[in-house]
Records
---
Amino acid sequence: MKEKSFERKTELLEAALDEFITKNYEDASLNNIIRNAKISKGTFYYHFQDKQALYLFLLESSVRTKWEFVSKRINEYPEAYEGKDIFEKFKMQARIGAEFAIAFPKFHRLSKMFTKEKGNKIYDIAKGILGSDTEKLLEEMIDKAIENGDFKKEFSKDFIVKTVSYLFIHFDEIFYTKEDFELEKMIENLDNYVDFMKGGLGK
């Protein structure tokens, strides 16, 4: 029984991803997930306590996979990253993020759906578990960039962090269409986006 249940975990996770990337957390149906995975409720509860545990597992998997992907790509080309101003670093990170979106489209869509949960209880629960590593990394980058004179002096750190975070979070809402979900097109849009950002915030 254990071996059979373990083998069905892949089907369960795929069915769950399909549900969570098309519906918000509250509307996502555990019964739909179980039915689409073609498993019994007993098999589901062998792996997860409830829908929340399943959702958090997928979010953690998405964050871990993206972190490993980005770290590996940056380490492959350290000379292209070090010594650049923050806007060039943004471009490189955005390009790697675009590559991740192409390589792992469901994880990418899951993260975008998660940002829409802000204000809901599940968002606070997930952030408490996942932590705020991304926000801390961004603040550290901006601190260093301010020291290096990459930003106009009239803008406060708080304003820069909030503006940059908002712009990157909502990039997909501005540009995403089926034809734009091609790597070269995404990179072109991202480069223009960062150049626009630099025109407003940069020196």
---
Amino acid sequence: MTLVAGLGLCQPFDYCCDPRTWNGAIHYGTSACSDIRTPVTPTASDSVQANFTWNTISHTVSFQNTSLNADSVVWFFDTLGTAAGDSVTFQFPQTDSFEVCMIAYNSCGSDTICQMVWAENISVERFGELLDLRLFPNPNNGTFTLSFLQHLKGDLRVEIIDLSGRVLLNQLYTNHQGAFDNTYDLNHLASGMYQLRLSSPDGTTMRSFVISR
């Protein structure tokens, strides 16, 4: 196979041109010293450029690979752990800044990016906003749905509390992972105002609701 002109895989053959585009042809000789030439179509692979974004909910941080031309990625969460995959989450142990590095790979090689990520405890109100927590309908007749879209990991606890502070419902969901959608039937409770408290390793939030008949 003879390179007539152009640029090659991952790096230009003569390091002369940028961007790396094919501007020539490659011919394959069918036999030694033969004048017969068969055109072939070359494929050039672009070098990988590592990059990622993240979203923080308290000590749990969701990471998304946004690299260019990456076939696979590996994550390094300071000295605390590793992971692989385009979308991963990691729970940091305390409020602090942590160095997160990601190595992106393709057939040309690899590229590494490191960024400082801040994990912190957040307020009850802010935690509910980040979860996109919804309790509906409100008011209701004692039956309602609780849902949130943001993925959480770990034990979740849902409590229903009356205005005197008594806990009327205490439901534990062990080793929960992902979003949440559940319907509750509290038709045995009297009409009035109540509080729903949702607790997780990442934080706690509350919602008021009214039972009206």
---
Amino acid sequence: MLRTLPIALVLLLTFAAVAQAENASVLLKMYGISATDPVEEEAKLSLLEEEYSVKASEVSSNTMLAAAYELMSQYSEEVLAGMDSEIYALSDELNAIEAAMGASKEQDVATIMELDSQYRTAAARLEEKRRLRDEWTEAAQAQPLDVPSQEKLEQDKSSLNSLGDKVDRQRQKYEQALEYPELGEVTSFKSPLAIPVRMTSGYGVRLDPITRDRMTFHSGMDMGAPIGTAVLAAFNGYVEEASRNEELGYYVILNHGRGIKTLYGHLSGYQVEQGQQVKQYEPIAESGNTGSRSTGPHLHFGLFINGRTVDPGILVPH
């Protein structure tokens, strides 16, 4: 069992309770690993959705305008056809009057004057109809500049479809980014120990502490700590392993999601079991001096991203 928790642990737990949660993408970016941030992806999605909305409104307006113009064109054709019919009828009427006038030379003056009056009236009506037809034809042929062509409409619809595909892809990226687990503190992470950090061996190549005759690679960082010091979960996650082996002695591996794992080695014991959910800064074990690779009481702290070790010293202030 853990001994009475020191003040440092209480402070850490208190700070964790009020700390703003950060997702796994924040940690990945600290190590230069490409990651999608849900906040950034949501902003990109909003911009694309706004662009799509504007484009869709434009395409809709232009489509309705083109349809209205098409209806107007059809109406114009019907009007012109009606005018042509009237013009043909008036032309026939004039021809009939001319024929009657030719046959009325032997008739009385009154009849001739009546036919002449009818002819003048019909001729005036015919001239007026032709004038109206010319004006209507000119107006119908003058397409407004803001009415898009059918080719332009098809191009705009194609662009809108492409933009819609972009929105769908970005929405998928945003939804995937939301799946990044919340780790807790990342940029202001304190320590996996309930006491101030005292690094005794850093990450990287070092003189082998056991043989003292060759250089070996150290895949984590060692922090000096009296046996029984509370060991804290670095981030939210679950216990992937809680076991013992020859080199590490008692150890715990936490899985934090998105390929992020932390290792705690040379423990004197642990209070968690495989599959157990843990929260950041929750006590999971006690530091110790177990395992063949330990030369004194300390905690071996390792950080893995996508199966590869990374320097936890970037994360832990020391």
